[in-house]
Amino acid sequence: MIRSRYDGPVSGPIALAIFGIVGGLILLGRGLGGYRRANLISDVAGATISAIAVGENRVSGTIEPAELTLVSPLQSETCVYYRASVVVEGDRSQSRVFQDERAVGFRVRDASGMLRVFPRGATFDVPDQLDARSGIMGDEPVGLRLRSGPATAMAEEDRAAQVADLLTVHVPGAPLDGSDGSPALQPAGGLFGASALGGGRRHYREARLAVGDQVTLVGMVLPFDQLDDPDGSDAMDGGLDPMGSDPEIAADLAEAQASGTLAASPEAAWGNAAIPGFGIGHPTRTPTLDPAATRPALATAAEAARAQRTFDILPGTLVLASQPQQRLLVTAGTPALATQRADDRFIVGLLGAGLSIASAIALAWLISSGPGL
């Protein structure tokens, strides 16, 4: 039997006091984080994009897509950021069977202009759009529509694909394990199905930032060519970072860089594949082909301009990204709304501090009273 300092049994009131101390400290920690976040948003002066300068800045505007968008795993919504989780809740325990968080590069626009955002290493403060549980009889919540295709999509889909999606009947609340014949959800890092879900109710949570949403960002503005890793900075997903995900690949890349055998440019490494539009048969410039090969038609001036606008970033273009001395903060809503959300978290943290103090006093009194309670 577990015993307290006074060598008596740990009673229900003592256990509740201990839980109160721990829970209050957790709330206090979150509250202090909200306090720091509110100060960061309010202390950094806001700037219009057209008048922005190199250094720490606060920018607010609406989200526009860059090259790619994401498809959220629990509601299949198009977005540029999502955080999703599924927790199975039993009678006395719970287990997290799915958790995923991803972001892709996007643009933010205000009334004066547009700025490109690179999310690698960013902190996201985004409230949940889905927070629901399955029913007692196992029925799924309204609004659940599990992703059945890839996690990414082109920002500008062709008209035929959009029409086909509109004409497709999507069944809400499909089983997670694909037992109805639909594809099972496959998050990065593995598959969870019926064996992983087990018994109990399922708690679904998903937060998103979608195209058109208002967003406030605090981070470093710098020229594009000063990014340490422009390609890796364009996505927040460890699986897209070969240097961080596979030590053998990292060693090979380091050896190639040291020996000088690593190609110096995409054109040298990929050849024709580096030409925008080459993969879809509309290259923006003439590729190098075998004389016997069929030559594709060059893209029109409008198609070439759109490809350049979408994929090419000039070296001196100012972008917003995380840096070692300043982590990018991305918060949903206007600066006032983001600050209010952080302040509310701080108030809850203060209440948590009060709970911890009261629980500590109660615990001290219970222990000093001895086993006579």
How would you briefly describe this protein structure?
With 373 residues, the chain is α+β, with helices and mostly antiparallel strands. Helix content is 30%, strand content 24%.
Would you mind describing this structure in some detail?
With 373 residues, the protein is of the alpha+beta class. The protein folds into 2 domains: 278 residues, no CATH class; 71 residues, no CATH class. It is built from 8 helices and 15 strands. Helix 1 packs antiparallel against helix 8. The two termini are 17 Å apart.
**Sequence stretches where pLDDT stays below 50 over 5 or more residues:** 1-8, 173-184, 186-197, 238-245
Share of residues in helices = 25-40%
Mean model confidence by pLDDT: 74
Q: Kindly estimate the percentage of residues that lie in beta strands according to DSSP.
A: 15-25%
Give the distance, in angstroms, between the N- and C-terminal Cα atoms.
17 Å
**Computed CA radius of gyration, to the nearest angstrom:** 26 Å
